[in-house]
């Protein structure tokens, strides 16, 4: 499954939420980078400049994550069904974990230099992590649902009772 085939499977409302959330995360990251450069130039931060990147990054990240998780109604088992998920979903999932680990490491290292720096950096990484995890969940959920269905019937419709 690719992003193109995923896009065709999503309904219009989910597409809007996920696209709007992704754009919001990118805008929040851009504003966060601008406030980070101002922080590096002056050595101090203005809390009012931190609010727009915070709202855009976290709000957009959750706007992608929640519809991405809710795409699959049968439940998504990431570790247990790892071999069944599409490769693109796996790559996005690993990328989201790399963003989270890299962001944590960057915030810890930045705190050594200046205790105010992690407050600026955390919103940059958190929004990107949530958005990539949302897209990965949507890809794995839809890929798992499309492989698990036969003749348009969900897995529960094909389940049989052992005594029959």
Keywords:
mainly alpha; 164 residues; 76% helix; 6 helices
SSE layout and pairing:
Elements: H1 3-9, H2 12-42, H3 47-70, H4 87-113, H5 117-148, H6 155-158
SSE string: HHHHHH
Low-confidence stretches: 149-164
Number of domains: 1
- How far is the N terminus from the C terminus? 36 Å
Instruction: Determine the structural class based on helices, strands and strand pairing.
Output: mainly alpha
Shape designation: elongated
Main beta-sheet annotation: none
Content of β-strand: under 5%
**SS element count, helices:** 6
| Oligomeric state, counting identical vs distinct chains | single chain
The average pLDDT value, as a whole number, equals: 79
The tally of beta strands, per DSSP, is 0
What share of the residues lie within helices? over 70%
Task: Write down the Rg.
Answer: 19 Å
How would you describe the overall organization of this protein?
By secondary structure, this protein is an all-alpha fold. It has one domain. It is 76% helix and 0% strand. The protein has six helices and no strands. It has helices at 3-9, 12-42, 47-70, 87-113, 117-148, 155-158. The protein is elongated. The two termini are 36 Å apart. The relative contact order is 0.18.
